[in-house]
Amino acid sequence: MSFPGKVMRDGLLEKRSSGLLQLWKKKRCVLTEEGLRLHDCKGGGGGGGDAPSSAWSSKAKELRFERIDTVDCVEYKRGLVYFTVVMATGKDIDFRCPQDGTAWNAEIALALVRYKNLQAVQTGRNRHLFTAHLGSTGEDEEL
After folding, report:
1. Fewest CB atoms within 10 A around its CB: which of 13, 33, 64, 123?
2. What are phi and psi of 92, to 5 degrees?
3. Mean pLDDT within 81-99
4. Contact at 8 Å (CB) between 35 and 65?
5. Among residues 33, 38, 32, which one has the least CA distance to residue 117?
6. Which pTM value belongs to this model?
7. Cβ distance 81 to 99 under 8 Å?
């Protein structure tokens, strides 16, 4: 099931496989307010640059912000930015992207902070409404 939300960025990233060889595989990534969707390339190699949408699998792996702890381990080597998405389970997922323009790691980190802040505000509001509701039960009223 695909999560809805405003698309904040759409483009190419390379993800390191978790297999023995740890190969870098091109992924079409869609950053939304809820998380990151990773689409596989149907052709295998991915070619270069942006490919038409038909070259990308409709099936996507979803990394929801509710399951992501942080984005860290940023390195800059030979025109590429290497970074790690750390999941709540402790699993690390390594990515790399070209260093030109605004790096993906920065946009993912900002979207993650925005999401976590929104969750904290909603939790605070719910707690406030809950305590306000408890206060109106008449416990503090005297006859």
Report:
1. 123
2. -100, 135
3. 94
4. yes
5. 33
6. 0.74
7. yes
